[in-house]
Sequence to fold (260 residues):
Amino acid sequence: PPRPGAPPNQGPQIAGVRHIVAVASGKGGVGKSTTACNLALALQAQGLKVGLLDADIYGPSVPKLFGLSGKPTVVDNKAMEPMVGYGLKVMSIGFLIEPETAMIWRGPMVQSAITQMLRDVLWGELDVLFVDMPPGTGDAQLTMAQATPLSGAVIVSTPQDLALIDARRGVTMFKKVAVPILGVIENMATFVCPNCGHASHIFGHGGARIEAQRLGVPFLGEVPLDMTIRETSDSGRPVVATDPDGPHAKVYREIAAQLW
Ligand code: ADP
Fold:
């Protein structure tokens, strides 16, 4: 896959941050945030300095994923210290406002909130900052992709046809703003029954790989539909951090290794 290193698109660079990589999906609920969080942790385990910005303004899930609450410290009245979860520097609109407040925001307000979280945060030195994008491929996402100096984008999709159509729109959107697609990840692929070990493909299987081939972008791997992944991410103990030698962490590590 094209490693992040290609020239970033528009928008001024952020001092100290080498690469910004968007994690995007065509629609909500496909596991974009779970994937972003575990990938970020997997890259950190490889020795990289990693940050995670939750730009999913209408459904910020990073505070919950990391079990973090409270407000970031403001320094000199102008910049915020990121919060730290399992060693990762994280920032989310969820730390700053009640989520219901953002629901009524209009486009320009969303854009300015994201710009602030990107630029008025003391990220320090980072090899990569992951941005958990708002789901979808509408104007808001397009504007954001344009305003952020992105080195690349990773697209998360479930295997169903409908999700794949949306993922295709995501690929098209990033191509439009000349952001390299680092690859597609199929989430919620195989389900292995914990009782009998039988593998079933609840949402189908292999669709994302075929779609990636069709679109001429790399396929980065499959993440199974797994109770442990759901339980750990919903209880603020992401699996890559809490069971780094287990089978789930291995899946994310193998995907991360292709990115860097
Ligand atoms: P999105 O960011 O796309 O809206 P989330 O990451 O919030 O999606 O995931 C939606 C739900 O699916 C969460 O409850 C999460 O724990 C669960 N989930 C995500 N990926 C998996 C997976 N591979 N296996 C099981 N549950 C998952």
About this structure: The chain has a mean pLDDT of 89. Residues 25, 28-34, 61, 135, 187-188, 223, 225-226, 229-230, 233-234 surround adenosine-5'-diphosphate (CB under 6 Å).
